[in-house]
Amino acid sequence: STQSVTVTVTGAAGQIGYATVFRAAAGALLGSGTPVRLRLLEIPEAARAAEGVAMELQDAAMPLLESVDVFDDPTAAFDGSEVGLLIGARPRSKGMERADLLAANAGIFSVQGQAINNGAAENFRAVVVGNPANTNALIAASHAPDVPAERFTALTRLDHHRAQAQLALACEVTVNDVDGVAIWGNHSASQFVDLSRATVKGNPAEEVLAERGLDRKWIDEFFIPKVANRGAEIIEVRGGSSVASAAHATLRHIRTWLRGTEEGRWTSMAVPSTGVHGVPQGVVSSFPVFCQDGDHRIVEPWEIDDFARERIERSLAELVEERQAVEQLGLL
Ligand code: NAX
């Protein structure tokens, strides 16, 4: 029989969690050949709602779903876990300072990192979705000293997909004709959306855009902000934050990591820097990455022009600031 995969989903009663678990159980995580065992983690106040999600999963009678269990204790939830979808986080409430938000989340992700260190499987890998995602991944990794730091990643795949979609739209092609976009830095409005290596039907994207009268200025003043602020635009138009698109990106992130990128094609993931591209070692930053055999590898440095360098530096400064704030709290 096929080996199943044990997946811990945090914030499972929340919006993205709800959307993610059904698709994971339907084969969207690792394909229809891999059964899943779901372990749903919630805070005690939401554990009953998570039981309700588990009941609905039962009611779907999904052939790939071997088991579903609900926990309000991180240590139990991560016991034997192979994949962690760390979606649950403390949202910013009205009047909450950025430092308070960082502190609240540091409390959550340090505890989960310890739980992972204690009981997760040897092959454990995690994607952090809950914001501030990059820094939360850094905190979890630092509290799981026995787990290689590169197993803790953060989600920028949604930003990557948004960049692909907006580029396709601007060039009046489908996303199948678009390749090579890259997201750098933090999953925040400071992210740098890089088209310098992107292609449209195999031609340099910047040339294709220029033929349509869309120059560097358009990229800088329209395209990049469009992608970086898309989450806010969705909130405004839909009346709620991104949910299904975020769940989809989360599933694709794990699938690509475990199944690999196609030959010569990269994706974007926030991973601990190996010190390349001028990104300080250990900072969890988004990069273009290749995936193979369950590993991710940052794409070899290419020549980054002054425009890109300045944008990347700006986002890195924000990440370094977040790291310092958490360090000052004694949570790293
Ligand atoms: P919801 O508020 O609907 O759900 C969050 C759930 O997490 C809640 O049910 C809550 O009880 C639970 N939770 C809180 N603390 C927990 C803990 N310590 N252990 C377990 N569960 C806990 O938010 P939702 O819309 O699902 O968004 C989840 C997170 O994703 C947010 O932090 C959001 O900012 C972030 N996002 C990240 C994105 C990315 O690309 N990285 C995009 C989408 C999304 O905005």
Automatic annotation (TrEMBL):
Superkingdom as given in the UniProt entry: Bacteria
Keywords (A to Z) from UniProt: NAD, Oxidoreductase, Tricarboxylic acid cycle
Positions of NAD(+) binding: 11-17, 105, 112, 129-131
A GO molecular function held by the record: L-malate dehydrogenase (NAD+) activity
Pfam family, one: Ldh_1_N
UniProt binding sites for substrate: 92, 98, 131, 162
Domain Lactate/malate dehydrogenase N-terminal, residue spans: 6-146
EC number annotated for this UniProt entry: 1.1.1.37
Family annotation (SUPFAM superfamilies): LDH C-terminal domain-like, NAD(P)-binding Rossmann-fold domains
Active site: 187 (proton acceptor)
Domain Lactate/malate dehydrogenase C-terminal: 156-326
Catalytic activity: (S)-malate + NAD(+) = oxaloacetate + NADH + H(+)
InterPro entries in the record: L-lactate/malate_DH, Lactate/malate_DH_C, Lactate/malate_DH_N, Lactate_DH/Glyco_Ohase_4_C, Malate_DH_AS, Malate_DH_type2, NAD(P)-bd_dom_sf
Family membership: Belongs to the LDH/MDH superfamily. MDH type 2 family.
Record's function text: Catalyzes the reversible oxidation of malate to oxaloacetate.
Protein's name according to its UniProt entry: Malate dehydrogenase
Organism annotation: Kocuria subflava
